[in-house]
Specification:
479 residues, alpha/beta, 18 strands, elongated, binds zinc ion
Length: 479
């Protein structure tokens, strides 16, 4: 007789990602015995060492809890569904103190308290939970606001940036009066105003391999709101090493991705993306842009998944990748599988400690090559232009960036980085050439490309056109 066993998401990693497994058995006990003999890794999650079913594993035949039937002796028939419901299916054991709720908190959270999925117990779980936000930018803004409002008792935030004018188009934690302030200072003030019953823990540092494990340790859930690959891999590996869930969100232009990477129960980020793209292939938001409201949508979904994990309610986004296309307004969901050969969470992991993520992502050249890259400051450029020097200025940004601001008046011409290899011969070899982009990253790659192609008189403009606007001509637009 064929019975279907439904595998809860957190355990699917042990059954090759399957949501259902069919067995031939006559009782619940026999069905489970077949399951664990087919998937031996599952055994220790379901049974104690002396062969007893673990107390936090609940079993249902169709809609009925077998504890109210005949337990493991309950018969199963053709077409029945046996559902395994382990309490770990979402219930994170929150590390904070189980706290009582005050009268003010009861009033504040009343819309939660009247829902059976939350209730007083759920609200206490939220209060006891400790959640760490990596980044207080576009994703961190809705995350911080909603998690604070919902009553997550301890919210840590890692960020070492200051608020600048380009942030305000999407980073709704901040207002115009915050310009120039450290983000953590402004964010802490705002979040404490949203909810004075919670604790905000600022971590005003840059997250590195040296400090990540120590910073992550006290938290139950890590939420990745970063915008660069080295930090994503760092966050993933630290979460895998510490056994913590990583609520992932990423945004670019009109597209978003959301998932929950939890190596204990499913795939990790490296199972999905084993290695980063080569530097420069995928532009950052600063280079490619991002639609203002998109981080609001993706960050809110991350906040939702975080709250579900803490409550242990619903079906977490573990083993699933949600793709959002804002232009078409379409969602797609892909199933993610745990890669048994994953270097972080696979059977024989090669990553047993944190590594140098800048180098891993190809962002750090050997020191000698970096030193060898000729640089020119904006003041040096200005002085040479003023002295009548016939420099060639090449702008390697995109045409839409040229539209915003350019150095055409100084003689600049546009060759976007992606087209440079087709125009190497258009760059004169008998004159000094200064290459610039927005902040100096793309132009450094262009200078490297030109040097490799045999050009000798090439310089990178340090700080790009941003530095020019800030230091030489503040009347131009800054972006
Ligand atoms: Zn993995």
């Amino acid at each position: 007789m064929s019975t279907t066993i439904r595998i809860p998401t957190p355990l699917r990693g042990f059954v090759e990602g399957q949501g259902e497994v069919a067995v031939q058995a006559e009782t619940v006990g026999a069905a489970l015995a077949q399951l664990v003999s087919a998937f031996p890794q599952l055994r220790r999650h379901l049974y104690t060492e002396d062969g007893q079913l673990r107390s936090f594993v609940n079993l249902y035949v169709n809609e009925e809890d077998v504890r109210y039937l005949a337990g493991v002796a309950t018969p199963v028939n053709e077409g029945d569904t046996l559902t395994i419901v382990p309490s770990i299916a979402g219930g994170l054991a929150a590390s904070g103190e189980a706290a009582e709720l005050s009268q003010e908190e009861l009033a504040r959270y009343s819309r939660h308290l009247i829902m059976p999925e939350v209730g007083i117990e759920g609200q206490k779980k939220l209060k006891a939970a400790r959640v760490l936000l990596i980044g207080a930018g576009g994703l961190g803004s809705p995350l911080g606001l909603y998690l604070a409002a919902a009553g997550i008792g301890t919210i840590g935030v890692v960020d070492d940036d200051v608020v600048d004018a380009t942030n305000l188009q999407r980073q709704v934690l901040y207002g115009t009066s915050d310009l120039g302030r450290p983000k953590l200072e402004a964010a802490s003030e705002r979040l404490r105003d949203v909810n004075p019953h919670i604790v905000i823990v600022p971590h005003p540092v840059r997250l590195t391999s040296a400090n990540a494990l120590e910073i992550f340790q006290p938290y139950d859930v890590i939420v990745d709101g970063t915008d660069n690959f080295p930090t994503r891999y760092l966050v993933n590996d630290a979460c895998v090493l510490l056994g913590k869930p990583n609520v992932y969100g990423s945004i670019f232009r009109f597209e978003g991705q959301v998932s929950v990477f939890y190596a204990k129960a499913g795939p990790c980020y490296r199972c999905l993306f084993r290695e980063p793209p080569p530097p420069g292939l995928v532009p950052s938001c600063a280079e490619g842009g991002v639609l203002g409201v998109l981080p609001g949508i993706v960050g809110s979904l991350q906040a939702l998944e975080t709250i579900k994990l803490v409550l242990g309610e619903g079906e977490p986004l573990i083993g699933r990748l949600l793709l959002f296309d804002a232009l078409a307004l379409r969602w797609r969901e892909l199933r993610l599988r745990k890669n048994p050969e994953c270097p972080a969470c696979g059977e024989k992991p090669s990553i047993t400690g944190l590594i140098d993520y800048e180098e891993f992502c190809g962002l750090r050249r050997p020191a000698a090559a970096l030193d060898a890259l000729p640089e020119l400051t904006v003041h040096e450029l200005k002085a040479r232009l003023d002295s009548g020097d016939r420099l060639v200025i090449i702008d390697v940004r995109e045409p839409f960036e040229w539209e915003i601001v350019n150095l055409e008046a100084q003689g600049a011409r546009l060759i976007p980085l992606g087209q440079l290899s087709d125009h190497l011969d258009d760059v004169p070899r008998d004159r000094d050439v200064v290459v610039h982009c927005r902040t100096g990253g793309r132009s450094a790659r262009a200078v490297r490309q030109l040097l490799d192609a045999g050009h000798e008189r090439v310089w990178n403009l340090t700080g790009g056109i941003r530095a020019w606007v800030e230091q030489i001509d503040p009347s131009l637009p800054l972006y």
